[in-house]
Every structure is written in structure tokens, then in C-alpha cells.
Specification:
The protein is mainly beta. The chain has a single domain, classed as Thrombin, subunit H, CATH 2.40.10.480. 4% of the residues lie in helices and 49% in strands. It is built from 1 helix and 8 strands; from the N terminus they run E-E-E-E-E-E-E-E-H. The protein has a 4-stranded antiparallel beta sheet, with no helix packed on it. A hairpin with a 3-residue loop joins strand 6 and strand 7. The longest helix is centred in the C-terminal third of the chain and has 4 residues. The radius of gyration is 12 Å and the shape is globular.
């Protein structure tokens, strides 16, 4: 789970989707993209983008406005993702 703007929440589920919404309005599916369980979620501090990482060995950068993948990378080594480091590569 990660905080978005205002009271917005982003939640990665064990059913391979990302939900967006708030506690007041509820959550709705935003994207389906990974083929295995998600284990990482990070929100860009300024842009409407977020990163996901899953057991399918994919790291994906998403555009939250268009609900589409900006880029994805297959990785073979698991490591902790810090979004501010990956900003320099996009």
C-alpha cells in the first residue's frame, strides 16, 4: 500500500492488480499487468507515475493518468527499489 495525493491510496493485491481510491469512496482496479504477485509499489513524488515490482521479475513504470505502462524491465536479481534512484533512468 502507498499514499497518493490527498486521501488517495494505491494498493497492490495478491490477485495481480493495483487498486486506487480512498477509504471514503472505496477502491477500484486501475491496472492489471503483472503475471505474479506484487511485492513492491512506489509513487513518484511529483509526476502522476508509480513503479511496481512483482515475483514475475518485472519492474514496471506506470502512468496513473492513462493507466498504461511507460516502460518495464525484466530483472533477475531481487533488490529493494528506491523510486528516487530510478527517476534518473526514465
Amino acid at each position: 500500500m502507498a499514499e497518493g495525493r490527498g486521501s488517495q491510496l494505491l494498493v497492490g493485491s495478491t490477485k495481480n492488480c493495483i487498486l486506487i481510491g480512498s477509504l471514503e469512496l472505496g477502491l477500484t482496479p486501475v491496472v492489471l499487468g503483472h503475471t505474479d504477485e506484487l511485492w513492491g509499489l512506489a509513487i513518484h513524488p511529483v509526476l502522476p507515475q508509480f513503479l511496481t515490482a512483482g515475483h514475475d521479475r518485472l519492474i514496471m513504470l506506470w502512468d496513473s493518468m492513462s493507466h498504461s505502462v511507460v516502460w518495464s524491465k525484466d530483472v533477475t536479481v531481487c533488490f529493494e527499489i528506491k523510486f528516487y534512484i530510478l527517476i534518473f533512468f526514465s
